[in-house]
């Protein structure tokens, strides 16, 4: 209503265009990132240097004493390669390359396994060395099935736990 009391005439306004304009194929592929109309632009191949999902280093004091863990881990490794323990039990404590080696050795052992019961492995001695904070180099002497084996491994504190990054079995 106006001051004089007469209603104002209604004005019709055009609706603004909200959709993006149509572009040609040449414009879409001209050097810039891929573009598709009415979709969110995502970069499926981000640069590798952002480091958002890399493993996070953990200090030794946050992880606890590695000696009991190394003893149990050395026993479990020998049991896996002898076919007495399933390899997936070690997947949480090893890097993918180390796990693939252990799983392959477990498969080979399972193929040649004869059906007798065997005694488990016994860890005789564990030696540790900490070259830097969050890294432990260890060796263990393990007796299994009448054989004495030496195991050398490198554990790194990653993501709040000890992780085997290098492994040698003698």
Describe what this molecule looks like in 3D.
There is one protein chain. This protein is an alpha+beta fold and 170 residues long. It has a domain of 104 residues: Nuclear Transport Factor 2, Chain: A (Roll), CATH 3.10.450. Helix content is 24%, strand content 25%. The protein has four helices and four strands, in the order ααααββββ. Strands 1-2-3-4 form a four-stranded antiparallel beta sheet. The longest helix is centred in the middle third of the chain and has 17 residues. The mean pLDDT is 80.
In brief:
The chain is α+β, with helices and mostly antiparallel strands and 170 residues long. Helices cover 24% and strands 25% of the residues.
Proportion of residues in extended strands: 15-25%
What's the total helix number? 4
In total, the number of strands is 4
- Rounded to the nearest angstrom, the distance between the terminal CA atoms is 96 Å
What about the largest sheet? 4 strands, antiparallel
CATH architectural designation of the domain at 60-113 and 120-169: Roll
Based on helices, strands and strand pairing, what is the structural class? alpha+beta
CATH topology of the domain at 60-113 and 120-169: Nuclear Transport Factor 2, Chain: A
Radius of gyration: 31 Å
Give, in spatial order, the strands making up the sheet with the most strands.
1-2-3-4
Q: Please trace the helix and strand order, writing H or E for each element.
A: HHHHEEEE
Query: What percent of residues adopt helix (DSSP H or I)?
Result: 10-25%
**The level-1 CATH class of the domain at 60-113 and 120-169:** Alpha Beta
Mean pLDDT: 80
- The outline comes out as elongated
The low-pLDDT segments are none
């Amino acid at each position: 209503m106006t001051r004089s009391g007469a209603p104002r005439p209604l004005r019709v306004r055009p609706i603004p265009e909200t959709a993006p304009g149509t572009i040609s194929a040449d414009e879409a592929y001209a050097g810039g990132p891929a573009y598709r109309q009415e979709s969110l632009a995502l970069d499926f191949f981000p640069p590798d240097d952002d480091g958002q999902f890399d493993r996070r280093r953990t200090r030794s004091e946050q992880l606890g004493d590695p000696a009991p863990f190394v003893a149990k881990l050395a026993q479990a490794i020998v049991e896996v390669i002898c076919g007495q323990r399933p390899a997936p039990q070690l997947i949480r404590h090893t890097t993918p390359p180390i796990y693939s080696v252990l799983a392959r050795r477990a498969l080979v052992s399972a193929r040649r396994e004869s059906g007798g019961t065997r005694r488990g492995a016994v860890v005789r001695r564990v030696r540790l060395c900490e070259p830097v904070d969050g890294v432990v180099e260890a060796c263990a002497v393990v007796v299994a099935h009448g054989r004495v084996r030496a195991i050398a491994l490198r554990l790194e504190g990653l993501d709040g736990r000890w992780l085997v990054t290098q492994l040698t079995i003698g």
